[in-house]
């Protein structure tokens, strides 16, 4: 993990995504107990790796997704939320 945990939680990766109408959304950093697929890059998040876990409700159905930390780091860098050393 390159940055403080709060930065991953506040990254705002999905803010402004109008197609994603999730209610009661919660985000936390978890250590995966089994393999998951990153919802952004579709790569495998290995068992034991940390990832951003999001859960909530869409149309009354519980939904959840995992995002690998690399994708969030890329987003933090692209969106200018962190200084990138050239
Ligand atoms: Zn990813």
How would the blueprint of this fold be written?
Blueprint: H1 5-9, E1 23-31, E2 36-37, E3 44-45, E4 50-58, E5 61-68, H2 69-78
Antiparallel strand pairs: 1-4, 2-3, 4-5
The chain binds zinc ion.
Zinc ion binds next to strand 5 and helix 2.
Strand order of the largest sheet: 1-4-5
What is the helical fraction, as a range of percent?
10-25%
Let me know the average pLDDT.
Answer: 90
Q: Could you say what the CATH architecture is? A: 2-Layer Sandwich
Class computed from helices, strands and strand pairing: alpha+beta
Shape: globular
List low-pLDDT spans: none
The Rg value, from CA coordinates, equals 13 Å
Biggest sheet details: 3 strands, antiparallel
Structure description:
This protein has 86 residues and is an alpha+beta fold. It has a single domain, classed as first zn-finger domain of poly(adp-ribose) polymerase-1, CATH 3.30.1740. 17% of the residues lie in helices and 35% in strands. The protein contains 2 helices and 5 strands. It has a 3-stranded antiparallel beta sheet. It has a two-stranded antiparallel sheet with strand order 2-3. A hairpin with a 6-residue loop joins strand 2 and strand 3. The longest helix has 10 residues. The mean pLDDT is 90. Bound molecules: zinc ion (ZN).
Annotation keywords:
86 residues; alpha+beta; first zn-finger domain of poly(adp-ribose) polymerase-1; three-stranded antiparallel sheet; 2 helices; 5 strands; globular; binds zinc ion
């Amino acid at each position: 993990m390159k940055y403080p945990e709060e930065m991953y939680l506040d990254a705002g990766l999905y803010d402004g995504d109008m197609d994603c109408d999730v209610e009661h959304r919660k985000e936390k950093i978890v250590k995966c107990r089994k393999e998951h697929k990153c919802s952004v890059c579709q790569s495998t998040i290995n068992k034991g790796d940390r990832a951003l876990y999001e859960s909530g409700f869409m149309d009354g159905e519980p939904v959840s997704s995992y995002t690998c930390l690399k994708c969030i780091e890329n987003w933090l860098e692209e969106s200018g939320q962190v200084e990138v050393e050239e």
